[in-house]
Write a structure and sequence with these properties.
The chain is an alpha+beta fold. The chain has 2 helices and 4 strands, in the order E-H-E-E-H-E.
């Protein structure tokens, strides 16, 4: 079972980060932030995503679990 997460980071990330971040969808917001959304299989994948964001210097503004769609 996967969990859908939404990550909001400072700065605009290019579309190529989708592949680097495990297939997360990237949306660039008018306020200069990016929203990344997608399914995360487990805690190991979640920590990997957070580590990649850290490694590229993208400041994490928020992270939340999105409600499951029935």
């Amino acid at each position: 079972m996967t969990t859908t997460y939404e990550f909001r980071v400072g700065g605009h990330l290019d579309d190529h980060w989708t592949a680097v971040l495990g297939g997360l969808d990237v949306e660039r917001n008018p306020d200069g932030t990016s929203t990344l959304t997608g399914d995360v299989a487990d805690q190991a994948q979640l920590h990997g995503i957070l580590a990649r964001l850290r490694d590229v210097g993208a400041p994490l503004i928020s992270m939340r679990v999105l409600p499951a769609v029935p």
